[in-house]
Specification:
Number of domains: 1
Strand content: under 5%
Helix content: over 70%
Distance between the termini: 11 Å
Number of helices: 3
Structural class: mainly alpha
Largest sheet: none
Shape: elongated
Length: about 70
């Protein structure tokens, strides 16, 4: 039961972090448009963008880890 609540909390946090990344990406970059094609894909992340990127990786790993623990305990 506690693992279900933890999974829900992690999934909501992961959703918020992903939506914040899309909001910061800029309108053209979200839909594939941009000035120079591939150069808009590879950017150096700084500040809050870097925090969101790392938070996405950490929350994804936590979600997968807790899901596997829940699977093996069921």
């Amino acid at each position: 039961m506690a693992l279900n609540i933890i999974l829900i909390i992690i999934s909501v946090a992961l959703t918020v972090v992903i939506l914040l990344q899309q909001k910061n990406a800029g309108g053209g970059a979200v839909f594939g448009g941009g000035q120079g094609g591939s150069e808009s894909i590879y950017q150096t992340r700084r500040g809050f963008d870097k925090f969101l990127f790392i938070a996405t990786i950490v929350l994804s790993a936590l979600f997968i880890g807790v899901a596997f623990v829940r699977l093996f305990l069921a």
